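Submission sheet (multi-component)
Chains listed below:
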Amino acid sequence: MTKLRLPRLLNSVSLAALGALLLAGAPGVGTAADAVGEIRIGFLSQTPEPPPSVANPDEPAADDGLAGASLAIADNNTTGKFLKQSFVLDSVEVPPDGDAAAALRELAGRGDRFVVVDAPGATVEALSKLPEARTLLLLNATAPDDALRGSACAANLIHVAPSRAMLADALGQYLVKKRWPRWFLVTGRRPEDKLYADAVRRAAKRFGAQIVAEKDWTAESDVNRTAESEIPVFTQAKAYDVLVVADEVGEFGDYLSYRTADPRPVAGTQGLVPTVWHRTHEQWGAAQLQSRFKAAAKRPMTARDHNDWTAVRVIGEAAARARTADPDRLIAFIQSLDFTMSAFRGAPLSLRPWDGQLRQPVLLAADRSLVSVSPQEGFLHPRTELDSLGYDQPETLCKTRGKTTP
Amino acid sequence: MTAARFTGISLAALIAATLASAASAQTIYVSNEKDNTLSVIDGKTMAVTDTIKVGKRPRGITLSRDGTQLFICASDDHTVQVFDLASKTVVHNLPSGEDPEQFALSPDGKSLIIANEDSNIVTVVDVPTRKVAFQVDVGVEPEGMDVSPDGRWGVNTSETTSMVHWIDMEKRAVVDNTLVGPRPRYAQFTKDGSQLWVSSEIGGTVSVIDTATRQVKKVVDFHIKGVAKDRIQPVGAKLTDDGRYAFVALGPANHVAVVDAKTFEVKDYLLVGRRVWHLALTPDQKMLYTTNGVSGDVSVIDVDSLKVTKTVKVGRYPWGVAVKG
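Outcome: structure written.
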């Protein structure tokens, strides 16, 4: 913990760039012999096309996600100018049916050793297995699949987004704390909905709630016009406290509230939603990030923006702490027990060595208000309460990442 | 110990009474971030005697050196208000730059150095002429501010960059940077200027920096039985002039840590209100006041006995506190 000493590294940077980044006449900050360390971060995004049946009233912005990564690059560079580190984002957008592997190769070819992947889980998994990815660190920014952290885990892959298990646990703790332990689980027809429902069942088991009723939503039709008649019939179930819905793309979940047969709240993928970020979140300095983002992107920060911001900040924070721009040393530092960072959600984030998951608090948000933040008080854990969310060390299905005990 | 006891009117008695009841002349000012008000507490009765409307989102507050004015960071009005204590009115605004949050006054009272949280800048205002003297670029989300007792250094902590930026006040430039624990929130020089104490909210620590070398010489850690480590989030801090104690507000841990400023050992943890944020000592160093954001109150700590003696309800989200002696 001392005054800044320059990392002695990269030499490919021109003297002009060096001069521009040097603080004018700064004694103790470095000498002209020290080079600027450039850290190149690839940003590979792929947005699946939403099914035509989804009438989303809030069309996502074209730069959803990328705007978060861009702000983080600016944040990294503000810090970096005091450490003679500069950060560059190489962004590639892969079409839904495009060749993500080719995009990754291109980024690796540009010298990017860190690649933030904002893509569906299948793409993340395929990329992590490429021979070209072996020496990279892939940061899974958005895919929530537990399998990526379990059977498909990889040494070159870390997970910035919380897993479905973490999201469901965050919600489950709150519902149990509210003494609403009887859940009516409604699952959509898509494979990811089944995975979300699995995570909800797992949470119920962990926290002593019961799934008292379950139904699958199979309607092919656009429910917009028929919801008022269909949903009261569909939601007739035995006594329950909360309807928990698993509908990740939003085919029908938004139509459930106010239409259930019994007057019950809706939670899960719609209604009360576990998420990393919400536009009404302002605690722990979040108001500052919200206003910084809004000034840059001219719109509120979404959860996807926030995940990408966090992914790029992981690298920036590591570079500042380890005081190096050397990718190998940074990759080792990020995965070490010394790495922690702040992300405006109260508790410090750090990496679970057993599956590469970033441990983090999860917000519970309604449309226009932040309702709570999990882990909830009373859900104890000997290491950190954050490990009461998701797969803990003894439960992990990851076999390839070693068993370092934090 | 009270003035009432001295009923025989002799000059000696009067003087004794005045000395003994110094606390009675104290007034405590508290900024309420979510009410846009200032609560005024009488130091003798510990009652709120007035609630005064000020600018939007008032946060950092500090007294002028002559004690007649209070500077108020009205963050959402993007200004520093100069509040006259006698007339209880805002007499003028100082140009502060965007979103001022905390500031510090130079020892001569002439320069106010202000953290502009949203624009990664520190603004230095010349108080007599009410003009911006200069601005310097700092790290992401500048927050904690102080000026060394000899006036040489202005320091600023940046929360996301996690550094102390050393501003040479004569050269008007950042000339050194010290990396500290994540999210540094508050900085204070010791009375002799030899050390700078910096709290790190997410790091959960306080760094003690040697001013001469700008190197961290000690990191103080905190442990409270029954409180999770990641809920211990140091924010405000205050050092006693005699070099005996450092008090550290631990945010959502709802405690103030009492640190022996010589050995750096934590002596005690005092339970106060919820989300304890900033602290102020009385000029005689006998009392410490804390702002407790979530419970909306102020805790009063007796420095000699290290006991919390009183809780005073104020407005919503009390943030800054200043004591006029």
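Remark: Residues 1-33 of chain A have pLDDT under 50 and may be disordered.
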